[in-house]
Amino acid sequence: MRVGVIGAGVAGLSTAKVLRQAGHEVTVYDKAPDVGGVWSRTRRYPGLTTQSPKAQYSLSDHPMPRDYPQWPTGAQVQAYLESYANEFGLAPALRLSTEVRSATPAAGGGWTLTTPAGEASFDKLVVANGIFCEPLVPAYPGLEEFTAAGGEVLAGTALHDAGAARGRHVLVVGYGKSACDVTVPLSQVAASTGVVARHLLWKVPRKVGGVRNFKLLLLTRMGEALFRYRVLRGMERFLHGPGKGLRASMINSIGTVSVRQFGLERLGLVPPGRMEDIVRGAIGLATEGFFEGVTAGRIAVHKNRVIARLLTVGGAPHAELDDGTRLPADLIVCATGFTQGVPFLPDAVTGHLLDERGNFQLYRQILPADVPDLYFNGYNSSFFSPLNAEMAALWIAADIAGAVRRPSPPDMRAAITQQLAFMDEATNRHHSRGGKIIPFSLHNVDEVLGDLDVNIGAPVRASHWLNPVNPAAYRAVTPAVLRRLAAAPRPSAPAPIA
């Protein structure tokens, strides 16, 4: 098959690698000049690091360098992904600095992609542009007056050098990981640094109590089981039944430690609710130096506030909060999330992809039930995003070969609806239009591999209940499935999905 892939981040690269190993001809397009997706040099902001430790953010057959720190920087992750592309010979498949302007279904099946270089035809298309594809920047009233006075509003991903804040009054909008990450280096050079936080969020310490790495608590199967999944099995039945008190104590104790460790009560930054509710908002890793900066007075957090408008005071740019507070603001950095879009697809296609609320309707986060020859990868953001993307790539290879046990189209649609309804409830709709599976990363891996009748050994899975899951444990899965596909009779092209 000729397969087109849109996006050269973790998902796009792992898809290209697996499909090429399966014998397909693959072309990968990305408008950035380098591989990496969110880690591209065109999108890296000061202070960017991984959310997961390096072992958990690695692909199964390509470990990160030993000399990398526990939480690699954005530049290090991009270099790692570049080394992955080189290791598996993906360079000939890459079309960097090449934006896909349109992707349209072709008569008789397949897809036609249009780029500045012309048109190209493919039998299958994989969308791997990511759920963090376009930064969301609020449209503030008074922007014209503000910019005329020298004020500047930027998306976090558009700020590449902390030096841009030197000697300036800076406001960072947001309280998620990216907001806190970028705040720390800016506060070290800015005249003043404020954070405008609509909501306070719980932050998980990188080292709980300053000693125990958080991955020993949350990046295990036990850690995932602390959050109720839609289907309970084995130990999960106990934790959400007779052992629910123990389960609540285990997770809420992290919140207690966080409050004490960061001095949140003294700083007035204790989030509402309990740590147990963390999944209903966002799971954030605490940024090193953030709360220390608040304590030292270098960072001021304006909690439960939003910017109402931009204006000038005495000819200087300012921001007015919704309580009337006016703050000097030469530079406003918006770490306010992203939009998930597929602008290259025609309306007739997106009408089948999205529900009435704009959620992507994807079976296993991969397959639209009503659009032939189209797959998605990377719409499964998690603590183990590379592993989830890699296993999804394997699922795609098997499905192209006709080796996936798909439900009927009506059953697929029902499963998609049930999954979205469950995630609405589990995350209070904070699932990025159906693209995030946090905190159910390993459940997704198990389901994807279950469709292929393959998994890692039960003893290893059991060890992952108490030990951090290492994607390297899945190293043998891809070659095993590819051998099976190579030995199977070649099926005729799959019939279009009804």
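(the above was protein one; protein two follows)
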Amino acid sequence: MSQTQLITADDLAAYREEFLAERANVVAKNAVTSSGIRAAARVPEGVAANAMTFDVEVKQGERCDQERSGRCWMFASLNTMRHRIIRRYNLKTFELSQAYPLFWDKFEKSNWFLANILDTLDEPLDGRLVSYLLADPICDGGQWDMFRSLVKKYGVVPKEAMPETACSRNTREMDKYLTRYLRGCARRLRESAAAGVERDDLLAMCREMMGEVHHLLATCLGEPPASFDVRLRDKDDKLVLSGSFTPTEFFAEAVAMDVDDYVSLISAPTADKPFDHVYTVSRLGNVVEDGGVRYLNLPVERLKQAAIAQLRDGLPVWFGCDVDQSYLRDEGIMDTAALDVDALFGFPVEGCLDRAERLDYGESLMTHAMVLEGVNLGADGRPTLWKVENSWGKDHGRNGFDMLSDAWFDEYVYQVVVDRRYLTDEERAAYDTEEARVLAPWDPMGSLARVR
């Protein structure tokens, strides 16, 4: 390393003198050391601009809580589906089981992992790809396309049919032991292949391993119901749905949603992802037979337009974002004007990278999925503020809701899921027919599937 990089005593003395010479630096130091960066950088006028009234709004039931798990994508998906049940049957509230898709996601991800291990037997164990696969094979995160695959195969059930357990509320222990077991499976498969074991025998080993995965998951989460009884009463206590259903029958009857009509739009303005093209992420998925994920990359304004159109039709919108940026969590406010970190420090910290640069340099990625349920529109018809249903319980934010400024949307919202009818003819044609360009497994557009 170059000797010119050495920091000298004279450098340190100059830094100290420069810092103490400015009154604002001393005031900032006192404030931050007493209360923290975000509290000191909070802008009350920015907070006041986030009033909880909306021109277009979708009403939802009571707030849900993912507790100590990374199931945001499941909660967001189920919240879009339970809205249909609440509206269809005129219910006060309703909740679908989140433990049920958790079971099948862990099960299918385990099978996906073993398939990837078989597919990479010739790759070096210490190479980037196999190291990546081993790093976190069954984390809690996921994508809309992965939830769609689960629903098509396994359906949904009411919360009462498969309630939460200690291991669904806090997935850390279950994930830890399942991950350890799967890494052991990877070792056995790689060593067996190196010893000359035929592929058919390796597949037989995988089937035996999956039986043990099922055993572990049933121990932690309970056995998923094959069928269940339902009795739903509306706001007037009238019986509106009753009978015995399988999970797939209940989805068809109560949710009545064609999940294949819903497509993922992303907005990543980086040089490696030209707009108006289709992308997938290598090695990202869960249900082997249903394939991986598929995105259409569009300018962020198109994501907003499609989301507003769906909200106007009375349907919530699943979206993925980098949730912790410019976020006043306790107040439920995501707004670049509500925090002024750069003014606090006196030089660009948040402003040192733009949207594309943050993605390229590892500063931003999708970390959380939620649901858009309202929007305010200015005199020009453009959005100014968005209403967000989170999955952190009713005591979070404003009765479980967050406010998201349109400026924050511009910077940190990366994905929305909308009905294909809100796309243009050209966008639908591209999504349906174009061969997807393959992104690396560690691309930030796949990061939501790796959150905990």
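Reviewer note on protein two: The first strand starts at residue 56 and ends at 57.
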